[in-house]
């Protein structure tokens, strides 16, 4: 049976997991509601304290009035005794005894109310300080949650920005490659146009019988013959052995 109890425990724990995740996902909302509940509880406690203080004030007034009545009857009883009115003095003494007993009970009730007031005041002070602390915790929790959201957004933006930068680099490289290729093509076309223009000019100069300054084989041979001619003349003038 032990294994079945463990399985039952596992099923109950598994059933609690979605609830725990739901609580974790809404922890700040729950915290806010708990703060509102605590504020309402403090407000109710303040009203209870106000009623308690009002009851204590009423008892104080009743006790003051009752003490005044006792003092007056004591004076009356003393006067009755002075006039040898024993029966009247005894009646007054019985009333005084009843009033004193009632006054004692009310004084005890007043003391209990005073003790309850002091305790409730202490609890309200501590609860007020704790509530301020929890409000600060709430602001900090919201700030941290906002910071987490901003961090996630910035991380996503940074990833997207990095991708954009890579795309821009690829596009810039392609544009530079096309521009370089276009420059090479333009230079080649310019070179071809120059060669074509120079070739046409040489043909027209040759047709007109104008030397264009270009070197050819005939000119090279003529130059060599001119260089050899003085040497040959010198060799012919030497005597024969």
Task: Tag the structure with descriptive keywords.
241 residues, disordered C terminus, 4 helices
Q: What is the gist of this entry?
A:
Keywords: Coiled coil. This protein has 241 residues and is mainly α.
Counting helices, strands and paired strands, the structural category is mainly alpha
Poorly predicted ranges = 233-241
How far apart the termini lie comes to 145 Å
Number of domains in the coordinates? 1
Number of strands: 0
Distinct helical segment count: 4
Main beta-sheet strand count, sense and barrel state: none
Question: Can you tell me the overall shape?
Answer: rod-shaped
Please report which band the strand proportion falls in: under 5%, 5-15%, 15-25%, 25-35%, 35-45% or over 45%.
under 5%
Average residue-wise pLDDT? 79
Rg of Cα set: 60 Å
Order of helices and strands: HHHH
Oligomer: single chain
Describe, in plain words, how this protein is organized in 3D.
The chain has helices at residues 2-25, 27-82, 86-207, 217-236. It is mainly alpha-helical and 241 residues long. The protein is rod-shaped and about 190 Å long. Mean pLDDT is 79; it is low at 233-241. Belongs to the PspA/Vipp/IM30 family. Keywords: Coiled coil.
